[in-house]
Amino acid sequence: MKKSIEQIRELTNKAHELRNGSTGLYRSFQEEFRSKQSDIRNNRDFTHAGKQKLIESLQKKQTTKLLQLARSQHSQYRDLLKQAKKDAKDLIHSKAPKVDADVQERFDKRLREFKTELMLTNPQRGTQLLKDFVRSVEDQALAAQVKDQFSEIIQPILNDSSKPEISKLFEDVKSRARNPETAEAQNLADFADSMMQSKFFDQLVEDRAGGDLGDAAKMFLNRSDEYFELFPEDDKPQSDLKTTEEVLLEEEAKL
């Protein structure tokens, strides 16, 4: 089903909100990480070397958690924009609505008479008649029919002197045949495409992730899919519960 401009705009707005919320999303993640990091540093049971190992382990675990979160957010973002672009293109290329049968019959008769009239007049007079006719066709679907038959219609009056004016009339009839929402739909399609090419997380968030978690977090924050392709063993559910390895690492950190 063809989507309206409002529905397409809503998709791009949702994508925009997701990206605008990415800084706040990282801030919440950062607070959680720094709280856990602080707990390790303030634990008097751990040795200095033990604290360093625990923080490195925490950074590794949180990097994976962050990149999984980034992948999920980025996937939603891309899906919204892809749908917006598809819906916009569908609207751009949508066919004109059908014309009422009686209206169509009257228009067909009128068009036949007009074609005959053009055949019986001179190019100068015919160009003026064509101009008046084109301007009288306001219905999008009927204008589309005139556009499709334009090359046939103009044959009796086409010559070198009439070409410039007739060319302008063709642009006019093309404009009338176009869905009035086409221009905005194209703008939305271009906007969606531009957003897909831009970073989801801005440079400031990348830098913060690098400062908190290390180079991998900064490097792959906007390329999380690539990270999990390189390290598929990390692509598993994350839990806040401590693993056996983490418990053992904490015991070793006390020695």
Please estimate the helix content. over 70%
Largest sheet: none
Overall 3D form: rod-shaped
The first-to-last residue Cα distance is: 67 Å
Mean of residue pLDDT values: 91
Counting H and I runs of at least 4 residues, what is the number of helices? 13
Give the SSE string. Answer: HHHHHHHHHHHHH
β-strand amount: under 5%
- Structural class given helices, strands, pairing? mainly alpha
Count of strand segments = 0
Low-confidence sequence ranges = none
Radius of gyration: 32 Å
Describe the overall structure:
This protein starts with a helix and ends with a helix. With 255 residues, it is mostly helical. The model has no long low-confidence stretch (mean pLDDT 91). It has helices at residues 5-20, 22-41, 48-92, 101-119, 123-136, 140-148, 150-153, 163-177, 182-197, 203-213, 215-220, 224-230, 244-253.
Quick tags:
255 residues; 75% helix
Give the topology.
Elements: H1 5-20, H2 22-41, H3 48-92, H4 101-119, H5 123-136, H6 140-148, H7 150-153, H8 163-177, H9 182-197, H10 203-213, H11 215-220, H12 224-230, H13 244-253
Helix pairs in contact: 1-3, 1-9, 2-3, 2-10, 3-9, 3-13, 4-5, 5-8, 6-8
Brief sketch in words of this structure:
By secondary structure, the chain is mostly helical. The chain contains 13 helices and no strands.
